[in-house]
């Protein structure tokens, strides 16, 4: 039996975020270059996207490239950018067939010109799709995003468009890259690392965290189902007591 059958569709997380980790270690097992791991990670991206969309998850955010990843050897960065663009380009018909909208968060203007163009083209070509949003975090880091938002808010204060006393959590959220999305309720990280790595720090305030030892290229639909089942077996209290939740 698939774990899918045990999932309560009425209590799905609306937004799942994934830190895809372990591609390099996966490649090393086979004595191959790190890019071999990234190439094989594409299958896992497909599996996660398909299974999330099939279930009815509304937003899936994948941490594909962090601002810190620019410090990797140039050869790996170039190969990763090429892979990202080729994959996005190739997957557009499938995204359209499955009614999946592509979006991106991060400092995407810092991507190489060709990658930036291709990404925007794919975003444009899938913008009317409704079933799920596949949100790629590219050249993203939470501290970059927060700094950018604070600068933007400060400018508006300076121009008199915002009064300092009107700065509240909703206003801050609306200046983040994820302004049009609900906060992730479930954050998954693969490869047995227990870190957040500068990912969605503001947005995951109440997210359930799920860690698996699986390396990203080995991640399959059943692994996503398992993470969702684990999520559904937890009691989400948002600072309240168990009694308050049970009697609500
Ligand atoms: C982390 O593994 C993975 C990445 C930095 C890149 C993820 C990219 C892909 C899966 C390629 C395709 C993606 C899309 C969205 C089309 P790592 O290199 O840090 O692995 P390690 O921790 O074992 O070294």
Could you explain how this protein is built, in words?
There is one protein chain. The protein has helices at residues 23-29, 34-55, 74-97, 113-125, 142-158, 169-174, 221-232, 242-247, and strands at 15-19, 59-66, 100-105, 132-140, 186-189, 208-211. By secondary structure, the protein is of the alpha/beta class. It has a single domain (11-141, 185-233), classed as Decaprenyl diphosphate synthase-like (Undecaprenyl pyrophosphate synthetase, 3-Layer(aba) Sandwich). It has a 6-stranded parallel sheet with strand order 3-4-2-1-5-6, with helices on both faces. The longest helix has 24 residues, at 74-97. The protein binds farnesyl diphosphate. The site of farnesyl diphosphate has 20 residues, from α1, α2, β2 and α3.
Number of strands: 6
Distance between the termini: 34 Å
> What is the CA-based Rg, rounded?
19 Å
**Structural class category:** alpha/beta
Strand order of the largest sheet: 3-4-2-1-5-6
**What does the average pLDDT come to?**
96
Flag low-confidence runs. Answer: none
Percent helix, as a range, is: 40-55%
Q: What oligomeric arrangement do these chains adopt?
A: single chain
Number of helices: 8
| CATH fold name | Undecaprenyl pyrophosphate synthetase
Please outline the major beta sheet: 6 strands, parallel
Query: What small-molecule ligands were found?
Result: farnesyl diphosphate
